[in-house]
Amino acid sequence: MSPSETEQPSGAGSPAEPAPGALPAVAPQLRALRRQASLTLEAAARAAGLSPAHLSRLETGQRQPSLPMLLTLARVYGTTVAELLGETVVGRDAIIRAADMEPTAAGGWTYWQAGAQGRGMQALRVHVPYGSQGDVVRVHPGEEWLHVLRGRLRLRLGDSTHRLAAGDSAHFDSLTPHRIAAEDHDGVDLLFVHTLLQSPTAALCLGPIPGDAS
Sign of dihedral through CA atoms 165, 73, 199, 193? Predict the structure, then answer.
């Protein structure tokens, strides 16, 4: 991924100030899981398409990650968004009840875990808000499937742009550069399933698409 935010140098020795509305559980988990994966800050940032400075700010709570960024970091660390957020895994029951799906906000997105933990796929129910998603373009091993529940979705796959309405679905190879955005001002709701594949070449296929704009 390649966030569009321009990095600003931080003052040496200045204390980290958490951003308003930051998720307190994310920062320590991001650092712990990176170290657990035996990745340096530079290596993890490169694999996720971030600058080391930006990843450092996420790990110190100075920046709040968006859901797409959490998904990318989860893939890099071989884990799930739930673990990145410090959520407790209570088991691997086959049935997930609606009452047990607690909403989690991340960078303006809202998601609900719709699948069991510790599986080869991660299923989410997601609300994508209207507006810029930071020009995030994703490229990674695996597959993705999404189904629009409400609203209209713009899906960029490679050089093609598709508009999906409620009831439409998409299933694609995640090595195809892709980006999603809500077309309606009240956002779009969708079901989203992706594989949690790890690959030693992941760092080679993650990153921005030069000159990409839509």
Answer: negative
Q: What is the end-to-end Cα distance of the chain in Å, rounded?
A: 16
State residue 88's pLDDT score: 55
Rounded to whole angstroms, the Cα distance separating 138 from 68 reads: 8
Quote the Cα angle for 155-160-166, to 5°. Answer: 30
pLDDT at residue 134, rounded to an integer = 53
Mean pLDDT per 10-residue segment, the chain (214 residues): 35 39 67 87 88 91 82 82 67 71 80 74 88 65 90 93 96 87 93 67 30 36
What are the CA-CA distances from residue 8 to residues 27, 59, 75, 112, 140 (Å)?
A: 19, 16, 27, 33, 27
Q: What are the CA-CA distances from residue 122 to residues 13, 110, 112, 150 (Å)? A: 39, 15, 11, 21
Q: What is the dihedral of CA 131, 16, 82, 75, to 10 degrees?
A: 80
Question: Alpha-carbon Rg of the chain, whole angstroms?
Answer: 17
